[in-house]
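Hi R.,

Here's the chain you asked about this morning:
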Amino acid sequence: TVICRNCGLVRTDPMPEPAAIEAFYAREYRRDYKGSARPTARRVLRALDVARDRLNRLRPHLEGRRRVLDVGASSGEFPHVLRAAGIGAAGIEPNEAYSRWAREHLGLDVENTDWHRAEFPAGRFDAVTLFHVLEHLADPVGALRKLGGWLTPGGALVVEVPNVEGNCGSPGGRFHFAHLHHFNLVTLAAAGEAAGLRVTASQTSPDGGNITVVFSREAPPRDACTVLAGNFDRVLASLRAHHPW
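And here is the predicted structure, written out as tokens:
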């Protein structure tokens, strides 16, 4: 795990090979992370509570949208909550068993694919959401650029990730091996701007553990490797101050 002295982005080095990443998320990740190859009732109910909270927080950005795509939809809890609120929703999920569960048990349009392989026409969606997905991707800027192209004019791209500056969890678990990038609000905003997106809103969870940025697509792309003054020192100081004691 390394940190960029120019911008303060924390990432895995070297990155795993794309084929290894694809195979891991298709079959192994859910078993490794959740302890089960298929969704369990307890985890689905817990995820539904989280999904309801997310919709309540993001309602100003999602209300009135006719078609929302949830990327990394898991077993479909967020699309299910959107549908119950009268918002049209679909999803993509790379794990075979979880995407199948969403289709068979919740009747959702959740395709078994990832952002690399998925193809949608430009302007297909009013909003695209990614909850704890971007940190798993080897090319977050490329993903944001592609997903932004699926938005209608005025559409919203909503990204939630763990906060590298958060101190609400054990420091021993900060760098999960499946998290390839670790963002704070500064580097997450910069990643979106490098993809040609504009920040319209941002928030940090009350416990400081998660950050959310809402983007629109009306912006010229900027240099992906830019100097973000002071962010390296800020992130490094935060990491050094967070210890078991």
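One quick note: The beta strands are 2-3, 10-11, 68-71, 89-92, 110-111, 125-131, 151-162, 181-182, 198-204, 210-216.

Cheers,
M.
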